[in-house]
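Task: sequence design from structure.
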């Protein structure tokens, strides 16, 4: 009996062969997870339902709407009892996604119940499980032993993560075996994708040292900053010999954390035989500069061509790189091997170095979908470097820390939390233990006796206690030839930019906010850096999107009062290389004192309280104890463990689908709008969806030229008159992707500035 329809060479694939091959491959993936037994059972049973007559008729095109996955899940429960729960969930979800693991939902897998009511309106391939099991046995297949269980009713967060890891091995193995069948050559041989290369940390360390030597030679930084960077690098190398686990790396902005982290990771991987390095960044606008540095190191070691498969970028802007390289999903037969191989590596992260976003990694850890979970097994025995961790939303902190601590303890992963403003997550250790027994007790990489923060004091903060109007602020800004001003809201940035331009030449004034698409922001930052480097006049008015991780150096910075960590990050854009004696940072309170969201307002209120308590003279951004106090007060006020009640309820109920729904780093009430920043690309993308349904390739190409806005309200927001939904099929239109219709509303300096009144512009 067949598992798949005929491929292009006219060959079929038997159920026995497919299940055995999937089981063996899943076991291979599961070795690093110590889940070989569970993976073997899941692989050998996942397509049990395909032995049903209705499924065989479906392969011939004579039936449709057939459920072939519930049978294997039910047999796993019947045969292995509680030990089979994780296996059953993985099997059930390998096509429809992970569902619910509570007792009532597991009992609903009973074929008798599914015959009476199937939640998806499908029919079982065979209602008699005895027939399926007999055909299974007659085919020479046997039920493997399963002596242990990874499922624990008292530890929902950990148990659900273990299921996702098992699920990952099954899904990836099934994808690869199915793919190989349909790629069979004319002689009948299966064609498997190439595996990704090995890490080779010793070789990369040579390249890193060479690159660091060049940076030191070319550096224009002050000797004091160079000494700090050298000390941080040595501290990271020394700490790399410590056993795998959870680490923090707390160092001032501009101290070289990006490359020092890599040095830690490579030495750590070399010492402990770890398989890959995963770099996790919060924002797209800092990914390019990190990827550029890492790519140069890899190219020195392996050459440009090999680097393309050695260093993998997986984020919403990485699709444009594939497109530029000549890859197109529309014509897969025309793809060159290199482009196709990069796409394969992206699907399951089978690459030694991966650069991705917090959204991509963390939402996958809480996902229930096969495509998102497929890569998770490749996290095992890796070093995961989280940069700018202060950006993690407070409402998600506790379940996130619990999952990461479980990954570290159970799967041999080292996690590094890096930032200049390290959140006091250790104060949440007790709450984290309620989700995962391991809690959160990281080791700090940087020894306190290095005193990096006191040595790096290169700015002086002046707290302007009186509220200031926009005209007053403009006058202060215009007193400086090169100056950065950061405000809390996009509408504030726009208003201030317009007023500065009305009094000064517009060519020397720049605007930066998420009203501008990613490509536009990158181009603006390039212009700003060039003017700063050349000593030309440069005034940049920005929202907080400039802060975390952006390598830019102004002599003067103005910052609207906000969270203390945001103020410190803003100061990190001032006198970054220490070339001035002391850079100047002015913290002001605008007359229109408003904030992006309640969490931001609450964090700002903690900053105010500390200023009131200690006075401005004691509010040093180089005082780690002050940040400890700030975060402690913030957590006491915000109670992270009591937030995201819908997410907590879903986890406690072992509900994978609801957990995925509620674990979102970005507000889901938002839309993507393709904007005419580059008119030629805009028109090409628009014509493309007018001709045919957009593919994944189209969305990848559109992402760098789109902006995210809060969802407009029907009947209230006039912006709807300017939006055209992207078509998804005949009579079906997207409610998440839109095309902006009036090209004149996209300003080459300001981004999307709609004439319609809309609360989405914040």
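Answer:
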């Amino acid at each position: 009996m067949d598992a798949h329809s005929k491929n292009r060479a006219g060959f079929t694939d038997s159920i026995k062969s497919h299940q055995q091959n999937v089981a063996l491959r899943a076991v291979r993936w599961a070795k690093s997870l110590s889940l070989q037994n569970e993976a073997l059972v899941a692989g050998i049973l996942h397509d049990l339902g395909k032995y049903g007559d209705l499924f065989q008729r479906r392969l011939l095109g004579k039936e449709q709407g057939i459920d072939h996955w519930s049978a294997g899940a039910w047999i796993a429960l019947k045969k292995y009892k509680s030990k089979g729960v994780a296996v059953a969930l993985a099997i059930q979800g390998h096509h429809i996604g992970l569902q619910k693991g509570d007792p009532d939902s597991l009992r609903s897998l009973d074929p008798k119940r599914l015959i009476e009511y199937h939640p998806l309106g499908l029919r079982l391939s065979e209602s008699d499980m005895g027939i399926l099991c007999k055909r299974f046995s007659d085919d020479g297949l046997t039920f493997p032993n399963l002596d242990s269980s990874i499922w624990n009713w008292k530890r929902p967060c950990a148990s659900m993560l273990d299921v996702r890891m098992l699920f990952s091995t099954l899904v990836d193995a099934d994808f690869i075996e199915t793919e190989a069948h349909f790629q069979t050559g004319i002689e009948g041989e299966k064609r498997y994708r190439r595996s990704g290369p090995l890490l080779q940390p010793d070789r990369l360390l040579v390249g890193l040292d060479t690159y660091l030597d060049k940076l030191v030679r070319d550096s224009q930084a002050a000797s004091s900053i160079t000494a700090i960077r050298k000390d941080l690098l040595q501290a990271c190398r020394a700490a790399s010999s410590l056993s795998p686990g959870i680490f923090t790396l707390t160092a001032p902005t501009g101290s070289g954390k990006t490359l020092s982290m890599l040095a830690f990771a490579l030495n750590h991987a070399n010492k402990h035989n770890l398989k890959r390095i995963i770099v996790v960044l919060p924002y797209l606008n800092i990914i390019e500069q990190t990827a550029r540095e890492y790519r140069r190191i890899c190219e020195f070691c392996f050459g440009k061509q090999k680097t393309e498969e050695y260093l993998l970028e997986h984020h919403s802007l990485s699709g444009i790189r594939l497109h530029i390289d000549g890859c197109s999903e529309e014509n897969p037969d025309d793809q060159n091997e290199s482009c196709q191989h990069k796409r394969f590596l992206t699907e399951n992260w089978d690459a030694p170095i991966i650069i991705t976003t917090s959204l991509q990694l963390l939402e996958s850890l809480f996902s229930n979908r096969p495509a998102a979970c497929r890569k998770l097994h490749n996290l095992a025995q890796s070093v995961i470097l989280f940069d700018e961790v202060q950006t993690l939303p407070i409402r998600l902190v506790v379940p996130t820390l619990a999952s990461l601590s479980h990954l570290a303890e159970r799967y041999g992963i080292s996690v590094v939390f890096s930032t200049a403003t390290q959140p006091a997550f250790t104060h949440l250790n007790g709450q984290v233990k309620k989700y995962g027994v391991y809690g959160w007790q990281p080791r700090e990489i940087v020894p306190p006796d290095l005193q990096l923060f006191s040595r790096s004091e290169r700015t002086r903060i002046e707290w302007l206690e009186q509220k200031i109007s926009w005209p007053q602020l403009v006058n202060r800004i215009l007193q400086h030839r090169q100056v950065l001003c950061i405000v809390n809201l996009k509408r504030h940035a726009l208003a201030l930019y317009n007023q500065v331009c009305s009094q000064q030449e517009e060519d020397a004034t720049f605007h930066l906010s998420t009203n501008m698409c990613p490509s536009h922001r990158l181009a603006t930052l390039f212009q700003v850096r060039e003017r700063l480097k050349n000593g030309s006049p440069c005034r940049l008015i920005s929202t907080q999107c400039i802060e975390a991780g952006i390598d830019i150096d102004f002599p003067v910075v103005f910052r609207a009062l906000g969270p203390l960590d945001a103020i410190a990050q803003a100061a990190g854009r001032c006198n970054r290389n220490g070339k001035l004696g002391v850079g100047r940072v002015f913290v002001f309170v605008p007359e229109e004192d408003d904030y992006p969201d309640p969490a931001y307002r609450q964090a700002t209120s903690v900053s105010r309280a500390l200023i009131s308590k200690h006075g401005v003279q004691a509010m040093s951004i180089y005082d780690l104890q002050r940040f400890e106090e700030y975060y402690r007060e913030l957590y006491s006020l915000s109670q992270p463990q009591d937030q995201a009640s819908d997410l907590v309820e879903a986890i406690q109920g072992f509900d994978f689908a609801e957990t995925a729904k509620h674990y979102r780093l970005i507000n889901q009430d938002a839309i993507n709008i393709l904007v005419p920043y580059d008119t030629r690309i805009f028109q090409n993308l628009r014509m493309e969806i007018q001709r045919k349904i957009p593919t994944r390739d189209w969305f990848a190409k559109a992402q760098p030229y789109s902006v995210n806005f809060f969802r407009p309200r029907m009947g209230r927001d006039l912006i709807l008159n300017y939006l055209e939904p992207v078509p998804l099929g005949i009579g079906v239109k997207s409610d998440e992707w839109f095309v902006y219709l009036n090209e004149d509303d996209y300003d080459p300096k300001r981004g999307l500035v709609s004439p319609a009144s809309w609360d989405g512009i914040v």
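Residues 100 and 655 are 4 Å apart (CA to CA).
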